[in-house]
What we know:
heterodimer; A: mainly beta; 4-stranded antiparallel sheet; B: mainly beta; 7-stranded mixed sheet; 0% helix
Amino acid sequence: DAKTTQPPSMDCAEGRAANLPCNHSTISGNEYVYWYRQIHSQGPQYIIHGLKNNETNEMASLIITEDRKSSTLILPHATLRDTAVYYCIVRVIPMLNTGNQFYFGTGTSLTVIP
Amino acid sequence: DGGITQSPKYLFRKEGQNVTLSCEQNLNHDAMYWYRQDPGQGLRLIYYSQIVNDFQKGDIAEGYSVSREKKESFPLTVTSAQKNPTAFYLCASSLRNTGELFFGEGSRLTVL
């Protein structure tokens, strides 16, 4: 089962920052936090990931709290094309000879409003 | 361009028939995955494979089968034993032990 908790839906005005929270209170010390998004009826797209430091790339910023129990994905200037479902995933540590599983929950449905 | 290709995009089948969904990648990725998505739901892991000729069951493997005879291919067969096969199926790949999954565009299966 997924080990993260996200609000089911959020709205954001176009041009404003979208801040998407994620709770992962049971995260282990060497588990990463990943963010993906899924535009309707398409495959999910990788956005960003982090371990303990804040991260930024051309798509978004990831802020992880010092205790690592929660994080926030920030889309600095949301556009209508950012309307999607956003998934926060804690990566399960692969066991020897087993998989590299990723567990996707129901995510947060972000609607960017004109 | 490198990528991951799923086919067919839409598929209809009658109850009791097996159907195979194709997934091909030219990214030279070791790991491949199959997920199922139902309307309004998240993704659930069906099967995954870390290397050729090896694969593992995910959370909902019953009624499905896979093979991994080639690194670039990971077909999924939805058998008649799958009680509710109508869903959106997504294939993904990654380098082994990295966290960036690359997804295909999906295959939508409808059982009539």
